[in-house]
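check this one:
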Amino acid sequence: MNVLIIEDDPMIAKSLSLALTDEGHHSNICSTAEEGYIAARDHFNDGISAYDAIILDINLPDGDGIKLSKTLRSNKITTPVLVVSGRTSTTDKVVALRSGADGYLTKPFDRQELVANLTAIVRRYNGHTESNIVTGPISLDLSTRSVTVNGDKIDLTGKEVQILELLSLRKGTIITKNQIINHLYEGRDEPESKIIDVFVCKLRKKLAEKANQRNYIHTIWGQGYALRDQPVLMT
């Protein structure tokens, strides 16, 4: 997952980022509501965000996290939001969820609880009831980021896993090269779109080696890529 962390306490923000990194995920940190809103807005294009989720603190130096959550939703930015707070009252939780947040986690918590909550809201947001997404013989576990094909585990690079996650979460939907680039690079040091063809080609070959040379990542010419349950033979 790519996660946007909106947290003003540098120690907490770093701790959250390290927890995600240790679990194989990526993150970007913003320390104010304004910075967080701009990052969420600028990385949300054509209904798809470069961020799979947002971790949002309630107490920010330039505003209230609950208000920011409402602002995101009023501006049609639908990226899943997990509020993290030391406030434990039921009222605070209800207000946060009614503001448009998708989850509420009370501090302190351990990294497994954090990742489990993030995975759950991302999964629900994309319409999946389980953390395991199956496409033909391909199985992707969102919780562990492990991939098996016909029961055999395969090793993928970080970028390849990110691409497969994006395609799996939005299975059947056409994902453009620009959307993949935005998801992989978050607007920083973006390469030419040709690199996506290279990544997808390598990913296809690794999957096909265990899938009887069948390809489940379809090229939609002039548009992008889509992961589908119906395969085509590799050529």
About this structure: The chain has a mean pLDDT of 91.
